[in-house]
Amino acid sequence: MHVISEQRLDDTVLEREFVLGEVPGTLWTPGSTAAPLILMAHNNGLPKSDPRLVARARQFATRGYAVATIDAAGCGDRPRSATEERARADLRRAVQAGGPVDEVFESVVGPLVERAAPEWRTTLDTLLSLPGIAGPVGYSGWTAVGIRLAVTEPRIAAVGLFAGGFVPRTQREEARLVTVPLLFLLQWDDEGNPRQRALDLFDAFGSTQKTLHANMGGHVGTPWFEVEDAGRFYDRHLR
C-alpha cells in the first residue's frame, strides 16, 4: 500500500489517500489505538470521494473507528474498459426508453461485484496488518458487494446495507447465507428501487439479528440521524 497524501482533519482523525496496486482508496483513522475497522463501499458507479460517503466515514472515525473506502472498477479515477462503456451506454438507453432494465443492470452490476469483492478482501488483508487497526470488522454501504463479503469473508462481524442499489440475482440468492447482524436502510419512495423487491430481500437474509429502518423520501433522502443509529449498531457488534 502506497500512501500518496495525508492530512489531519482535527485533533483526532487522520485522513490518508492511498493506492493498493491499481486501486485508489481513502483511510480515516482515529487517535485511539486498536480501532475496529469499517469497510465503506458506495453503490456502483459513484466515486470514493462522494460527499455522502465522506461525511459518513468521518462521522464513524470521530466515533473511534478506522474507516476505509476504495473505488470500484470503472469508478472514480479508474478507467473503464470498452466492454464497461458499452454496458453502461446500454443501461442509459434502456432507462431513457422506459423499458425493462433488469437484464441490462445484471450485465453492468454483476461483473462489478465479481471484480470488487476480491479487491475488498485484498484491501482488508492490508489494512488489518497496519498498526492501530484491528478486528472485528464491519461493512457499510453497497448492498450487492456487502452480501458477497458477508458470505465469503469470516472477519466481517456486522453489515449495514442501503437498499437503494440494484442487487443481481446471484446476490439475492446468497442473501439467505448471510448470518451476521444486519442493519438495512430503505427509502420508502426510492425512485430507482422497487419497494417490494427491497422488502423481499430483507426477508431473505438469514441473519437472526436483522433490523429494517424505513424512512419516507427518495433515493438520496436518508436522514442524517440514521448515521448516528448506525454508529450505535456498530458499537453493539464491533466493540
Question: How does this structure look, described?
Answer:
The chain is an alpha/beta fold and 239 residues long. It has a single domain (2-79, 113-238), classed as Alpha/Beta hydrolase fold, catalytic domain (Rossmann fold, 3-Layer(aba) Sandwich). It contains 7 helices and 9 strands, in the order ββββαβααβαβαβαβα. It has helices at residues 51-62, 82-97, 102-128, 143-152, 169-174, 195-204, 225-238, and strands spanning 2-8, 14-20, 23-29, 35-41, 66-70, 133-142, 156-162, 182-187, 210-215. Strands 1-2-3-5-4-6-7-8-9 form a 9-stranded mixed beta sheet, with helices on both faces. A hairpin with a 2-residue loop joins β2 and β3 (23-29). α2 (82-97) packs across α3 (102-128) and α3 packs across α4. The longest helix is centred in the middle third of the chain and has 27 residues, at 102-128. It is globular, with a radius of gyration of 17 Å. It starts with a strand and ends with a helix.
